[in-house]
Automatic annotation (TrEMBL):
One Gene Ontology term of the molecular function aspect: serine-type D-Ala-D-Ala carboxypeptidase activity
GO biological process, one term: peptidoglycan biosynthetic process
Bias kind Polar residues: ranges: 384-398
Gene: pon1
Lineage: Bacteria, Bacillati, Actinomycetota, Actinomycetes, Micromonosporales
Keywords assigned: Carboxypeptidase, Cell shape, Cell wall biogenesis/degradation, Glycosyltransferase, Hydrolase, Multifunctional enzyme, Peptidoglycan synthesis, Protease, Signal, Transferase
Domain Penicillin-binding protein transpeptidase: 346-633
Signal peptide segment: 1-22
The protein's name: Penicillin-binding protein
Reaction(s) catalysed (UniProt annotation): [GlcNAc-(1->4)-Mur2Ac(oyl-L-Ala-gamma-D-Glu-L-Lys-D-Ala-D-Ala)](n)-di-trans,octa-cis-undecaprenyl diphosphate + beta-D-GlcNAc-(1->4)-Mur2Ac(oyl-L-Ala-gamma-D-Glu-L-Lys-D-Ala-D-Ala)-di-trans,octa-cis-undecaprenyl diphosphate = [GlcNAc-(1->4)-Mur2Ac(oyl-L-Ala-gamma-D-Glu-L-Lys-D-Ala-D-Ala)](n+1)-di-trans,octa-cis-undecaprenyl diphosphate + di-trans,octa-cis-undecaprenyl diphosphate + H(+); Preferential cleavage: (Ac)2-L-Lys-D-Ala-|-D-Ala. Also transpeptidation of peptidyl-alanyl moieties that are N-acyl substituents of D-alanine
Length: 778
């Protein structure tokens, strides 16, 4: 085949080659060296949805999928043999007569006209290339036209025939040979040129493919295409001469008009079968690169994925993914700068079920993408819409996420429960909270952080049910201070929240030049970082979804995974990517937290009363028991809603990835609002699934704490007398600001809140009468 055969023939005339063959029985000559192992050549890895049937993506360096010889039809085998090695079943690795014939023909023509490399010798050459650890000099030595290379091929071919039978050699050859147009092996060639499985090829198609092995790039122009058809006809003729097909079959094969498709085999996440699967595919790819079992470096892991021939059954649930994507693009068309992001995860398993965005998963295109919205971006720069491959939804060191807002109050709530503060713990909330810790960035009160409530938030006495339901900032800031920020952040970390080592943004975070993780890892710093409870740190939707999934699973944290199962090319299941769960929150604490988290989304507490909610229509729309929380960052630059059922948690973010501090206000309700998107996604994903109730908490210490009766005092008593009585009973006492309608004389006590009993040592708020109306309700 190669020009080097002329030199090889000259150096090793027929008599010499015959002598070598005679020595084939000798162990030294006929033994394969260590450097030649017929390794399986690089294979396509396939990624499937959770149904293990729907293909999401193919990933490869070389477009190849090996087939057993039994799945390669005889017509294909005979076409290859007619084209490349008609004496294949007669020689023991080297065709001596063919070698001599080629030598004489080439000498008479003065150039290479005939080849003499058998299929076995060609397989040796290809195997050497794949077996040499890709060292450039060794690959060159395996392919260059030299006497040494030719002699080595002859020796190894003879040795290979002693190790493998003819069927094994032919199978390896058919799976390794290059057919042009990035098609390696007969399976890929059948797909690329005819979009068929090899078993469905006609005689004409099989002969056409067989002719490409010698000239794999010959079809690139019209002349080459004609030559390929001429070679097809030659091979068909040879098949007839060898009695492998009938004359009638040969005539029909030559007359068949071939439609050559040159079909591109999709490769990687930008070529997923449905574009909106791309963000999940990318998440799986990034997950793979972090798994040391696939190699010591990311390069090694990438090579394993792209050459290992794995069958990867992912966790992507097509119903959930479709529901999430449809909801995202309905609420926010893909041409908007605002990104609507939805991440879904399964409680109790960590299986990532959906990652959807109102974006095309596509390389950024300066011609298609809109202008960057960030005023600090270079003039004329483009934004990440509608096309991007950035990891907008999942955890990655290169991506911090966004400010989730008040949904982060959940960590303070859980930490409070863990530290003996029950759900019924009352704080007399004000319009503005006065933290006991300093803060350098936002407007402060004498240097101390003092955030206000959102507009319209009811102030006064609140417990955790009502404060979480109505998202009362001025409840959770003092609660954070009481519990201790280090304990709150410890809860967050146990539930999967990460803080990446990235340079500090002086506009958002305390200090100068600190690192996020360094800062939060410091107990002293964490204690004073009250803004954490209102969601000022940055996190991706998947982490927040998994927080609520952890609580829905009774405190069982499961590391997010994109993997149902991974099978090797030999169909061996790998023990990686499966369920990896740890009990990080006491089940009763988790159940108590879920009980409070039912209030914001219009569900009902099983042990108390909800009051207010920021997404009250969620329970009605979804039609299942739900818990969750909305969130809004400073200046409404981010809007979020997270909802969980027992079977699925979805977190939705509405953000501007190019300008996280955008002045564009993100909406919760109505068109282009995040709430309807999350609600629709959950409704459609859960359609037809059973309604499973959350397990109610039973531990009264977590619900009400140790209760004590509030002293009975005379109607319309003085504030001083009631205060003394309450303090004498061990209660904390506050007098409400302002007055309430009451028949009692102005300035006297109209009522207390609570009225009958409350947490021992807890807060009792005295309500003062205005003397102008009926008594206030309880």
């Amino acid at each position: 085949m190669l020009a080097g055969i002329v030199v090889a023939a000259a150096a090793f005339p027929v008599a010499a080659i015959s002598g070598l063959l005679a020595k084939a029985g000798g162990e030294a000559f006929g033994q394969l060296p260590d450097e030649l192992t017929v390794k399986r050549s690089p294979q396509i890895s396939y990624v499937f949805a959770s149904d293990n049937t729907t293909q999401l993506a193919a990933v490869y360096d070389e477009n190849r999928r090996d087939l057993p010889l039994a799945e390669i039809p005889d017509v294909v085998q005979q076409a290859i043999l007619a084209a490349e090695d008609q004496k294949f079943y007669d020689h023991n690795g080297v065709d001596v007569k063919g070698f001599a014939r080629a030598f004489i023909a080439n000498q008479s023509q003065g150039e290479v006209q005939q080849g003499a490399s058998t299929i076995t010798m060609q397989l040796v050459r290809m195997s050497l290339t794949y077996s040499l650890d890709t060292k450039a000099q060794e690959v060159l030595a395996a392919t260059e036209d030299t006497n040494a290379r030719k002699l080595r091929e002859i020796r190894y071919a003879i040795a290979l025939e002693r190790r493998m039978n003819k069927q094994q050699i032919l199978e390896n050859y058919l799976n390794t040979a290059f057919f042009g147009n990035r098609a390696f092996g007969i399976f890929a060639a059948s797909q690329v040129y005819f979009d068929k499985h090899p078993k469905d090829l006609t005689v004409s198609q099989a002969a056409y493919l067989a002719g490409l092995v010698k000239f794999p790039s010959s079809t690139d122009d019209e002349k080459g295409k004609r030559a390929a058809l001429e070679r097809r006809d030659y091979i068909v003729t040879e098949m007839a001469n060898l009695k492998k097909i009938s004359p009638e079959q040969a005539a029909a094969a030559k007359a068949e008009k071939l439609v050559i498709l040159y079909k591109k085999t999709p490769n990687g996440c930008v070529d997923v079968s449905a574009n909106h699967w791309g963000f999940f595919c990318d998440y799986l790819h990034r997950w793979w690169l972090q798994q040391e079992v696939f190699g010591p470096t990311t390069y090694d892991r990438e090579r394993q994925l792209r050459a290992g021939g794995f069958r990867i059954q992912s966790t992507l649930d097509l119903t959930t993914q479709t529901a999430a994507y449809n909801a995202a693009i309905k609420q926010a068309p893909i041409n908007l700068p605002q990104a609507l992001l939805l991440a879904g995860i399964e409680p109790g398993t960590g299986k990532v079920r959906a990652l959807a965005a109102n974006r095309n998963f596509k390389l950024d295109d300066d011609e298609e993408n809109g202008p960057n919205t960030n005023p600090k971006a270079p003039a004329g720069s483009k934004g990440s819409y509608p096309n991007t491959t950035n990891p907008l939804l999942s955890t990655d060191p290169s991506f911090q996420g966004y400010r989730p807002g008040s949904v982060m109050k959940i960590y303070t709530l859980v930490a409070a429960l863990e530290n003996g503060i029950p759900l019924d713990y009352v704080i007399n909330t004000q319009a503005q909270a006065q933290s006991k810790y300093p803060y350098k960035l936002e407007p402060t009160c004498n240097g101390m952080w003092c955030p206000p409530n959102s507009a319209g938030t009811a102030i006064g006495p609140h417990n955790m049910w009502t404060a979480f339901g109505s998202s009362v900032n001025t409840y959770f800031v003092p609660l954070f201070d009481t519990v201790g920020g280090d304990k709150v952040i410890d809860v967050a970390k146990r539930m999967g929240v990460t803080f990446y080592d990235v340079p500090d943004d002086p506009n958002d975070r305390p200090g100068t030049g600190t690192k996020d993780d360094d800062f939060y890892s410091s107990v002293a710093n964490a204690k004073i970082w009250s803004p954490f409870t209102l969601g000022i740190s940055t996190h991706p939707p998947l982490q927040i979804a998994n927080t609520f999934a952890t609580l829905a699973a009774d405190g069982l944290y499961c590391a997010p995974t994109p993997i149902e199962a991974i099978f090797t090319f030999k169909n061996e299941k790998l023990d990686i990517g499966g369920k990896n769960c740890t009990q990080v929150i006491d089940p009763e604490v988790a159940r108590a937290a879920i009980d409070a988290a039912r209030c914001p989304v219009g569900d009902s507490s099983t042990v108390s009363k909800c009051q207010g909610g920021t997404a009250l229509d969620s329970r009605k729309i979804i039609g299942k028991p739900v818990a969750g929380k909305s969130g809004t960052s400073d200046n409404e630059s981010t809007a979020t809603l997270t909802i969980t059922t027992k079977q699925l948690a979805i977190s939705g973010f509405l953000v501007d990835p190019d300008w996280p501090d955008t002045t564009q206000k993100m909406k919760h309700k109505g068109d282009r609002g995040i709430n309807p998107a999350v609600q629709m996604a959950m409704r459609d994903a859960m359609a037809g699934k059973p309604s499973i109730q959350f397990t109610p908490p039973k531990n009264q210490k977590l619900i009400t704490g140790v209760q004590a009766n509030i002293p009975v005092f005379a109607p319309c008593a003085s504030v001083g007398d009631v205060t003394a009585a309450l303090k004498g009973a061990g209660f904390r006492v506050e007098v409400a600001k302002g007055t309430v309608p009451s028949v009692c004389p102005a300035g006297s006590v109209a009522a207390t809140n609570p009225t009958v009993k409350t947490l021992r040592g807890g807060l009792v708020v005295i309500q003062v009468s205005d003397g102008k109306g009926p008594s206030p309700g309880p």
